[in-house]
Write a structure and sequence with these properties.
Layout lengths: L2 H11 L4 H53 L15 H6 L5 E14 L3 E7 L4 E8 L2 H6 L4 E12 L2 E15 L5 E2 L16 E10 L2 E2 L5 E2 L2 E2 L11 E7 L2 E7 L9 H7 L6 E7 L9 E7 L1
Parallel strand pairs: 6-7
Antiparallel strand pairs: 1-2, 1-4, 2-3, 4-5, 7-11, 7-13, 8-9, 10-11, 11-12, 13-14
Length: 294
């Protein structure tokens, strides 16, 4: 209560002598000054507390950034709130909205502000098709870059992909090592590795078709041989009596790349090791990025 109010109250009552009034005023002023001093001390403590909270928050942010930056190095990815695990994504129905955090492994193409990407986390892979993306942002999507993608799960001839997507770049980096899936060829379990970066060991090059003279050839330009240099390359390889068609996707690896030249130099009967992305089209149809003749 202010000193003036106390004085008015004292006069109104008419029961207090002048000395008592002065005493009351003195005590009241002392009380007010004391409260002001306490208030100032409290503000200082609050300021110190705020500063401590700010420092703690800054340290937490730094720790979070450090965790994000190293999340791709080992262990299992920690997903943000509302983000699916790969298991949840794989179980999602076609045409439903999906939200994933994943890492760019390779860029297939950019055209008319749309990007197509091969991406993967520690547990599985996601093919991102025709995602709206500026050319400036496309340049930022180097292999290893972590992105959060929101879109819709789709299926085309057995290939599961994310379409109508939007993305944001996040802190973190991860490059997947090729997983050897040779032993899974011809087995139902192979599709569980769809779109992952994989390897195949010790396969044999078979005839892919015939040239105009009727001679067997080890590869074709385009799926039916109607293409030309610079188009996709199709070639056949076998294992344990079963033959599979593999592809060098020209948007991913054009005719200036080592793998494109290596496939053009294959001979029927060659034994080869290969790496690439486990794409699917009416069955397994890997997009090959590396071929080594043994």
């Amino acid at each position: 209560m202010k000193a003036e109010a106390l004085v008015e109250e004292t006069r109104f009552r008419g029961k207090v002598e002048n000395m008592k009034k002065l005493t009351v005023l003195f005590l009241t002023c002392a009380l007010v000054l004391g409260c002001a001093g306490c208030g100032g001390s409290g503000d200082d403590k609050d300021s110190g507390s705020d500063a401590a909270n700010t420092n703690t928050s800054a340290e937490s942010d730094a720790d979070a950034q450090e965790t994000d930056a190293t999340s791709g190095e080992e262990g299992t990815d920690e997903k943000s709130e509302g983000v699916m695990t790969y298991e949840e994504y794989a179980a999602a129905d076609v045409d439903t909205e999906v939200v994933v955090e994943t890492y760019v492994q390779a860029k297939q193409s950019w055209w008319e502000d749309k990007a197509t990407l091969y991406t993967q986390d520690k547990d599985g892979a996601y093919f991102i098709y025709d995602m709206p993306c500026s050319e400036e942002d496309y340049e930022k999507l180097v292999p290893g870059t972590k992105i959060k993608v929101t879109g819709f799960k789709a299926e085309w001839s057995g290939e599961f992909e994310i379409i109508d997507a939007e993305f944001e770049i996040q802190e973190g980096n991860y490059i997947a090592e090729a997983e050897d899936v040779t032993a899974l060829l011809g087995k139902d379990e192979l599709i569980d590795k769809q779109n992952m970066f994989v390897s195949f060991q010790g396969m044999t090059v078979e005839a892919a078709g015939q040239d105009e003279a009727g001679n067997d050839v080890p590869f074709l330009y385009s799926w039916d041989g109607s293409g030309q240099d610079g188009d996709d390359l199709y070639f056949n390889v076998s294992l344990d009596g079963e033959t599979y068609t593999f592809t060098v996707e020209s948007y991913l690896c054009d005719n200036t790349t080592d793998v494109y030249q290596a496939v053009k130099e294959l001979k029927i009967g060659d034994t080869v090791d290969m790496e690439g992305f486990l794409y699917w089209y009416e069955g397994v149809n890997p997009h090959i990025t590396s071929v080594t003749v043994k």
